[in-house]
Amino acid sequence: MDKLRIMSVFGTRPEAIKMCPLVRELSTRPEIESLCCVTAQHRQMLDSVLEVFDLKPDWDLDIMTPRQTLSTITSKCLLGMDGAIDALKPDMILVHGDTSTTFAGALSAFYHQVPVGHVEAGLRTYDKYSPFPEEMNRKLVSTIADLYFCPTVNNRDNLLREGISQGVFVTGNTVIDALKTTVREDYHFATEELNHLPYGERKIILVTCHRRENYGKPMKHIMLALRQIAEQHTDVELVYPVHLSPVVREAVDAYLRGAPRVHLIDPLPADEMHNLMARCYMVMTDSGGLQEEAPALGKPVLVLRRETERPEAVEAGTVKLAGVVQDDIVTMAERLICDREAYARMAHAVNPYGDGNACRRIADAILWHFGRGEKPADYQA
Ligand code: UD1
Ligand code: UDP
Fold first, then answer.
1. How confident is the model over 358-372, as pLDDT tens digits?
2. How far is the CA of 135 from the centre of ligand 1 (A)?
3. Ligand 1 atom closest to Cα of residue 48
């Protein structure tokens, strides 16, 4: 029998971190030819992940331009995907999450009548503009997909409420699979500065911020809150790997650069980032991925957003929504910095997003879909 040609499509840093372990798992299956097409919606930040996971794509659309708009990303991905699908002839296309690459990848698959598997399916805020444009991207992909790989039972229930019940699997999130390969107790940082941070003596707060709906006033409030925290607490150091988006960099330069005890550094390779997270005191972020990783590492997270599509760790008590107003962010951070009991209540490891075997379950489900294997049991976190 011919091998199944399963093509994973991704383009940004988080998609790559969460898809590389899956591309690798698929390549271990004798029934599958695992193919990889990158859009390179991110260039440097994507290449960094490919290097960490030692993955060479079969096709590269190389679409990134500085300050790209949503329309240019989507249209360039669509045009480029025609060539990739014609050349690689996939039996199924896998997309991940909710980026413009995800949406365009799924739409292109549909145009070519290739079935779609949606990895990290079923996340919702039910606010069409927040996160923007991600909430709409993932909803649109839900209407196109044939297989749905939900990280949690809650994500599956969201799909069921929308009338989607066929081909739905609860698998856990592949980010936990990735973390299992990167975090090590004896890890030595290639970024020398990170080996010399005062981990035991000061509270290291790991910060990231990049969301489009935070551009403008919310990002200004976030930066000013971070500045205030650093200025007022001499026992704290902020480590902030700054996203390469020029909009983000401008906000950082305008409101945060020059504050004491703030380390503004370039984006870190995924293995460096994960090990820094494992050693930090707490995390402040508007990132989706960090909300999943930090709880697994026992680190409290303050989310710099008004809402989250990841309520599981909020319910488990390790993540809190801090919002995007300066005073609120400072108040919530100070509580964790100064109140030992409040900190202890949040700093416990939980794994609502998986046990590190999501890729295995997804590969099994794909084989079942094509009649080449048993149906895998759902994972109940
Ligand atoms: C994208 C995703 C977002 C995801 C985020 C992860 C969309 C609409 N947004 O947002 O869901 O959370 O990635 O980080 O799909 N840039 C570089 N080099 C890079 C990467 C980005 O220079 O390696 C700069 C470019 O100027 C680029 C800009 O950042 O135009 C913004 O990148 P873009 O992919 O459009 O949006 P993100 O905010 O990164
Ligand atoms: N990350 C990284 N280096 C950094 C910042 C983040 O490797 O300098 C990782 C992080 O650990 C997580 C992922 O990138 O796995 C999250 O990506 P991002 O915050 O860009 O996007 P989101 O998850 O919000 O879509």
1. 999 999 999 999 999
2. 16
3. 23
